[in-house]
Amino acid sequence: MLILLYALLIFCIIGSIIAIEARNILASVISTGVVGMGLSIMFLFLGAPDIAITQVVVEVIVLIILIRSTVSIDNTAIESHRDTFAILSSLIFFGLFLVFAFMAFRQLPPFGEPVMKVSQHYLQDSVTQTGASNVVMGILLDYRAYDTLGEATVIFTAILGAFVVLRIKGKKKTREEDRVRVGIPKEEELVSEK
User: Fold this and answer.
1) Engineered SS bond to 138: which of 47, 118, 132, 180, CB 3.0-4.6 Å?
2) How far apart are CA 5 and CA 33, in angstroms?
3) What's the whole-number mean pLDDT along residues 29-40?
4) pLDDT for 84-117, tens place per residue?
5) Is the dihedral of CA 125, 130, 134, 139 positive or negative?
6) Rounded to an integer, what distance in angstroms lies between the CA atom of residue 106 and that of residue 101?
């Protein structure tokens, strides 16, 4: 199991390097998303399914935001040739991700069996130790209060980031220098051509 964790760590490092070095912005975003999914698989191996779920939720929200902002960028200045390094590395990276995901799901316990043995203690003793009438609230607010606060903070920050990036009001207008730099004709030229 330790070898698989090291392999996943190397996989995430390679994916991060690809995300930094790829010339295509969309390939970088997808590579970053695959690294996040690799981290969630590592959390599953380490016995932290709640953190893995939080990682997946945040990763999906961040990917949606990044892909939306990446696709809306005007890429007319980018050359039209295919970046073979980005395509080849993305395919290899995706194949490795599928192999690791398959290996991870084979080692998980069957559905319904507890992943952690401490869950039996929580179910048996939480009412007497915490004084809560609801076992779930006793676990979340007494045994795992800091963890719950951290997860809520992460989800709140991701949602706040989504609102900031996707807002319509307050976006910058395209300046004339930016339009000329990427090859878009000035508005006066468009009017004179008509």
Assistant:
1) 132
2) 18
3) 86
4) 776 777 778 778 878 877 877 777 777 667 666 7
5) negative
6) 9
Structure tokens that stand for 191 in this block: 């009017």
Contact 11, 40 (CB under 8 A): no
Show contacts of 184-190: CB within 8 Å, 24+ apart. 184/74, 184/76
CA–CA separation, 19 and 117 (whole Å)? 38
The token pair at 48 is: 């932290």
Distance CA 68, CA 90 (A): 20
| pLDDT score of 85 | 73
Cα–Cα distance for residue pair 109/91, rounded to 1 Å:
30
Q: What local confidence, expressed as pLDDT, does residue 182 receive?
A: 57
Q: How many other β-carbons are positioned within 10 Å of the β-carbon of residue 123?
A: 12
Separation of alpha carbons 14 and 153, rounded Å: 29
At position 20, the amino acid (one-letter code) is I
Q: Which residues contact 46 (CB under 8 A, 6 or more apart)?
A: 5
Global model pTM greater than 0.70? no
Residue 164 tokens, joined = 């900031």
Angstrom distance (rounded) from CA 86 to CA 24: 7
- The sign of the torsion formed by the CA atoms of 167, 169, 172, 176 equals positive
CA 56 to chain centre: 6
Distance between first and last Cα of the chain: 68
